[in-house]
Write a structure and sequence with these properties.
three-stranded antiparallel β-sheet; alpha+beta; about 90 residues; Hypothetical Cytosolic Protein, Chain: A; 3 helices
Length: about 90
């Protein structure tokens, strides 16, 4: 039986299996995006498929810590919109 890797949501702090989380990527070209495939190049952080977890991560500056950069409000808004598009 193959073991499924676990990751921790940076919003709520819960450990979940990797396929159940969404990866946010900070690409080498300094852009942020949501990576539904989990294969894009760049530094990644994981959140639950829930806008409340993204809000917690933004409010608590968890994204800033995960990516070691300051995430602007414009970038945060773009991530919110991308997550809403994914839910559809």
């Amino acid at each position: 039986m193959k073991k499924i890797p676990e990751r921790t949501c940076i919003g709520c702090g819960q450990k979940k299996e990797k396929p159940n989380l969404i990866r946010i990527v900070h690409s080498p070209d300094d852009t942020f995006s949501i990576d539904p495939t989990g294969r894009k190049n760049g530094r990644g952080a994981y959140i639950c498929n829930d806008s409340a977890c993204l809000e917690k991560a933004i409010k608590r500056k968890a994204l800033d810590r995960a990516f070691k950069v300051t995430v602007s409000e414009d970038t945060a808004q773009a991530l919110r919109e991308e997550l809403i598009q994914l839910d559809r």
